[in-house]
Design goal:
binds zinc ion, elongated
């Protein structure tokens, strides 16, 4: 490992702070979104569809941020018990470049790709108004 535990903790803290501020911004946006006020008539259906899509993407993004925060918490746990930096699926050492880019990585690239194929991220569109 190229960095000591302390440095990884700091990196995870920084990433978590970034995600938390993104989530705060997204929640504020959502509160202001016109689709949240159903009494307002939206005459242009294109605008309405666009707003609906934006809302769905925003919530998909929030889901992803929340998932990454969970990954960070799991990575802290692995740091504490000395398992940080090894793939949770196959046990190989995760390359340092990958950990630098994504300190919460729990899997090597190969296992991550397989995981994403079997656990696709869904974007849920709300029903039409
Ligand atoms: Zn692996």
């Amino acid at each position: 490992m190229t960095k000591n535990t302390e440095q990884w903790h700091r990196k995870l803290d920084e990433r978590a702070a970034e995600l938390e501020s993104e989530l705060r911004t997204a929640k504020a946006d959502e509160a202001e979104a016109p689709t949240r006020t159903p009494h307002v008539q939206v005459p242009d259906t294109v605008d309405a569809a666009e707003e609906r899509l934006r809302g769905a993407l925003r919530s998909a993004e929030m889901d992803r941020d929340v998932a990454e925060l969970r990954d960070i918490e799991a990575a802290r746990e692995r740091l504490r018990n000395g398992e940080f930096g090894t793939c949770v699926d196959c046990g190989v050492q995760i390359p340092a470049e990958r950990l630098n880019a994504m300190p919460a990585s729990a899997r090597c690239v190969e296992c991550q790709e397989r995981y994403e194929r079997t656990h696709p991220i869904e974007i849920r569109l709300p029903p039409a108004l």
